[in-house]
Structures are given as C-alpha cells and as structure tokens.
Please model this.
Amino acid sequence: MTQKMNDDVDWRAALNALGTVTVNEARAFSEDLATFDADRLAEAKEFVAVANLLAFGAPEIEPSAGVWDKLCAVMETEPKSPAANAPAKETAPHQIAQLDSSALLTIRRDEGDYQQVSEGIFAKVLFENQRAGTTTYLVKFMPGAKTPLHRHTGLEECTVVEGDFQVDGKDLRAGDYHCAMPGSVHERPYSINGATVLIVAEGHYEVLAN
Model:
C-alpha cells in the first residue's frame, strides 16, 4: 500500500528538515517514507529540500531585549487544558486508545487497577493497540481459580510471570510461553497455587461453559 503526500506528511517533513524532532519521531517518519511510491517519495524529498532553503535561507537576527519576557508573559495567559494539568497516573492504562509513534509508556507494578473477570481471576489492561487490534494485559489467578471453557476468535499469546499456570495438560511456570490460535478452545486453564500471566490477545472470547 502506498501513501500520498498530505498536510500531516508535509508538516512532519518540514519538522524533520528543521531538525526539531526526536530520534523516535525521525525514525517513524523514515518508516512512513518507505510506504511511498516513487513519485510521492520524490515529491517528499523535494519538499524537504525546499523546507531546508526556507528555514536556513534567512539571515540571523539577534532578538531585541525583553522578547523572552514578553513571550513568557503571553504563555502565562494561555488557558491550560485539564489534560495538561492532570497527573499522568490519572490516565488509566486501559483508557489509552493509541500512543503517538514517538511516545513511551511505562506502567509500574503498583499502577493501574485489576478488575475481576471471573471467580478468583482478575485482569489489568496495560495497552490497547488499535493498529494491531490487540490488547495486552496481566491476569492474576487466585489459588484454584479456573477460567470458563472458551473459544478464541483471535490469536492469544500467554507468558507466565510467576506461579503455576495449568493449560493444555501442561504445568507452565515463570518464563514459559503458550499460544492459542484463532478458533482453538481452552479447556478451562487454571492455577493450583496462584499465578500472574501476561497475555497479548486479539479479538474476543466465546464462552462455551462456566
């Protein structure tokens, strides 16, 4: 699939030409350029060349005294959005629709809330990837807790973080990995002594029996 130049690409090309982007933003822009056809790629390169000329063609001028103070005064009068003032921890991980390509996300062990999804089983959503259509979350099993019998509508990947995870007739321990293909059925996975499992899954589950 090829991508055409648009206002967003124009703007990002200009910022890259000026060197005002982060390393991650520059890498993301380079990856996007790889999706262009030959004509659009040539157009993008011409735009960057023009942006360079416009940015650095003007003579340097020393700002007059007091410009910085005036700028700060204007910035102080600008209204602050609630999102800008809210502490980062107030944004629950499961409410993040999709991070910008240059953003970084860290969730501490004690951050976020576990929600009960079944008797003795609790889940905490870490990230919803709209582009891939997957959800990453931690699942805590209390000792003896079992999931309902269910079918997977999409791929599910599981990695045991701690404890024991009994699935597919196997006793999985910390560091063990298990993958369920779309359409597969899980025969009530459970934990004997309790477990924490990291799951990356696409689609939903079809509960067949409790």
Remarks:
- The longest strand covers residues 121-129.
- The two ends are 44 Å apart (CA to CA).
